[in-house]
Amino acid sequence: MVDCIVRNWQGKEVGTASLDLKVASQSTAADLVHRALVRQQANARQGTASTLTRAEVRGGGRKPYKQKGTGRARQGSIRTPLRPGGGIIFGPKPRSHAVAMNRKERRLALRTALMSRVDDIVAVKRFDAEFETPRTRDVVAALERWGIAAGTRVLMILTAPSEAVIRSVRNLPDVKLIAANQLNLFDLLNARRLVASEDALTTIQEVYGDG
User: Fold this and answer.
1) Helices (H), the chain
2) What is known about what this protein does (predicted)?
3) Domain count, the chain
């Protein structure tokens, strides 16, 4: 179990929040997280790359020249892969890149990655209460008060983001907003700092703390 320092909107420490999640053993953690990350990125691929074989390229139905007597190599079609404009040998075709992984392993990898980032978590008390109207500059100023420099990749984790928060954050290219019950491995590892509301940490404990 680890304790995260909770700050208020002005950046002052107002308490602590505990996070107790089961993680993988040190000997298997790196491999588990890597496999889960590869799976997530592979499953995100569309797999729509496609090339034409010599049978699918338009044209080439007539033999370009006679079989014998020219001194040249015999050719049956101008759409052979040996010619420009011909078909592609062993080119990509639409397929699924999906990688299978057990649900327990995926959740364990997510918990392991999250617990490895506890030093980068900034817990905030009553985050949503500060937004009555959308205002991006308020978010930028708050990040500075919490010790997060401009241009830092930030993952903002909230339980149920309000419309005002969503509209305030969407103009910041380095800040990504995500619900506490929809965490994913790539975003957790890609961000340099994590900003989570106090109730979001409680939600994370409830959703992912079942082992």
Assistant:
1) 26-43, 103-116, 136-145, 163-169, 185-190, 198-208
2) Forms part of the polypeptide exit tunnel.
3) 1
